[in-house]
Design goal:
Length: about 200
């Protein structure tokens, strides 16, 4: 919990961990080689990054800290030739943002995800959402996936009306991929049934 709080509120600490784990984009070597145990700890810290920047001890978000944290990390990522990994890691963290009563996330988070320059952040967000589902039992009728597709399509329509077209596109991509997954499961089940009847 303490580490998560530091990552969410101290951008220097977050960037330090990124620097230790990731090489510069245009470099073949790490600046500071680490032992295997240290790399494993860092791996879990970074890949389990599931927190919104600016989250306080009580779980509440602080928009001013969020804004300054994001600005610091984006600037650092560009200067340190690690922009892609910084943005994708942030995006994965934002995928854990809590939902409001209307089923959407806070508008200041949507605004950040919607910015033109944050393509890689949107990629991380998409991956984060998709991975949170984990291992599931295959439904031969694809019902869970179709329900998720409907959910993300509805969200996309709502946020597009609010003016967040790029964020809406991520939600539509999620809906599309869940629809494809449902169709795959349905076809697979039908194929098995046909094989059993022969």
């Amino acid at each position: 919990m303490a580490l998560r709080y530091r990552l969410a509120n101290e951008p220097e600490f977050f960037c330090e961990k990124i620097k230790l784990f990731y090489k510069k984009r245009h470099s073949d070597e790490h600046e500071k080689p680490l032992s295997e145990p240290a790399l494993k700890r860092l791996y879990h810290l970074i890949y389990d990054f599931c927190v919104v920047p600016g989250t306080g001890w009580n779980g509440e978000y602080h928009e001013d800290i969020f804004t300054s944290w994001i600005a610091y990390c984006k600037k650092w990522g560009k200067e340190e030739d690690r922009e892609t990994v910084v943005l994708q890691t942030i995006g994965r963290g934002l995928s854990y943002a809590k939902k409001l009563d209307n089923g959407l996330i806070d508008e200041f988070i949507m605004n950040e995800l919607n910015k033109v320059e944050n393509d890689e952040m949107r990629t991380g967000y998409y991956v984060g959402i998709f991975n949170q589902r984990g291992v599931v039992t295959v439904d031969p009728e694809g019902k869970p996936e179709l329900q998720l597709a409907q959910k993300y399509n509805d969200m996309a329509e709502n946020v597009e009306i609010m003016g967040y077209a790029k964020y809406a596109e991520v939600l539509r991509n999620l809906a599309r991929d869940y629809t494809n997954e449902a169709m795959h499961n349905i076809k697979g089940h039908r194929h098995i049934q046909e094989m059993q009847r022969r």
